[in-house]
Each structure stands twice: as structure tokens, then as C-alpha cells.
Amino acid sequence: MVLVAPSDTPGPDAQSLAAELGQAAGCPVTVGAAGPATGPAELPGAHDEAARCLSALRALGHTGSGGAIADLGFIGVLLGDQADLGGYVRRTLGPVLDYDAARSTDLVTTLDAYFAQGASLTRTKTLLHVHVNTVVQRLERIGRLLGPDWNEPPRTLEIQLALRLHRLTQGP
């Protein structure tokens, strides 16, 4: 079934629709969404994107949920027709980037060094030429900004990819 509906928030709308349809049907319903499409010419592309999103949701074990490509993290970046790399970096690292910009700090560099050194506090402090307590304090601040799961394997993959994309888009 294909549903075309006006929406500026396809991800949250797909989540709501999956829950409502699942309850009505009495079984899990998975909804892949795309858009917004601004006219009839964009509908085929939006349909294709929603179908890719649906396949990805199923492959990731998210049966019974809904989402859009933007909700799928780096998988969405890979599956999307128009890779929004800047948007991905902002969704993943935004609070840290904003903190650095507002306070002239460099938590992004600390985070990048931490992962580059295999999550070793000792090697990170050596690379950054700071005391190990400074590294610990910075990582605690990063944890408050990104959430308690920032250092869990699935999330670290997302963060490391966003860090690399950030470096690539910032230039030398």
C-alpha cells in the first residue's frame, strides 16, 4: 500500500502511522516515509526513497516502527538520493559543535583524538598534550551533550562517521 499525505515531518508521521495501523490491524506495521515532495514530478523519487527506507527498517529489525531516511543515521545517508552530509553531521554532533562555537572550546578535537587513539585515555592525553583528568572532564562534558549512550558501539560508529565527514567538509 502506498499513501501520499501532506507532511513536513515524514519521520515522526511514519512513526505515528505505524503505531496506529499496527493497533488497528492487530499486528506490527512498518512504515517507510520520504519527502516532503513539492509536486507531482517528485512523487516517483519520494516513493523510491520510502521503499528503500522500508527495506532498511526491516533489515535493521525495526519491524513495527516507522521512519524516514533521515531517521536512519549513516544508513540513511547511504540510502538517500540526495545525501545530506551536513545534516547528518549536525544531527549527530550538533550539541558538541554548538558548545565549541559558543565557548571557543575544542571538544570535537578531543572526541576525534579519543576515537583515533582507540578510546585510550592515556594515548589521547599524550596526543592532545593535556593531563588525563582534562581528557576525562572533556569526555564527561561530551557525554552530557550527546547523551549517555554516546560511547556505546552502535552510537560510536555514527559519531566516528560524523567526525570524519565533519573533517572532510571543513577543509584543511
Structural features, described:
With about 170 residues, the protein is mostly helical. It has 2 domains: about 70 residues, no CATH class; about 90 residues, Orthogonal Bundle (Arc Repressor Mutant, subunit A), CATH 1.10.10. Helix content is about 65%, strand content about 5%. The chain has 8 helices and 2 strands. Strands 1-2 form a two-stranded parallel ribbon. The longest helix has 19 residues. The radius of gyration is 19 Å and the shape is elongated. The protein starts with 9 loop residues before the first helix and ends with a helix. The mean pLDDT is about 90. It holds the Pfam family GGDEF_2.
Task: Supply the key terms.
172 residues, mainly alpha, Arc Repressor Mutant, subunit A, 2 domains, two-stranded parallel sheet, 8 helices, 2 strands, 63% helix
Short description:
By secondary structure, this protein is mainly alpha-helical. It is built from 8 helices and 2 strands; from the N terminus they run H-E-H-E-H-H-H-H-H-H.
How many beta-strand segments? Answer: 2
Quote the distance from N terminus to C terminus: 48 Å
> What portion of the residues fall into strands of 2 or more residues?
under 5%
Tally of structural domains: 2
Q: Please state the average pLDDT score.
A: 88
Structural class: mainly alpha
For this structure, the CATH topology of the largest domain is Arc Repressor Mutant, subunit A
- In CATH, the architecture of the largest domain is Orthogonal Bundle
Q: Please tell me what the overall shape is.
A: elongated
Low-pLDDT runs of 5+ residues are none
CATH homologous superfamily title of the largest domain: PucR C-terminal helix-turn-helix domain
For the biggest β-sheet, the strand order reads 1-2
**Rg for CA atoms:** 19 Å
Largest β sheet strand count, sense and barrel closure:
2 strands, parallel
Total count of helical runs of at least 4 residues: 8
Order of helices and strands: HEHEHHHHHH
What portion of residues is helical? 55-70%
Task: Please write the CATH class name of the largest domain.
Answer: Mainly Alpha
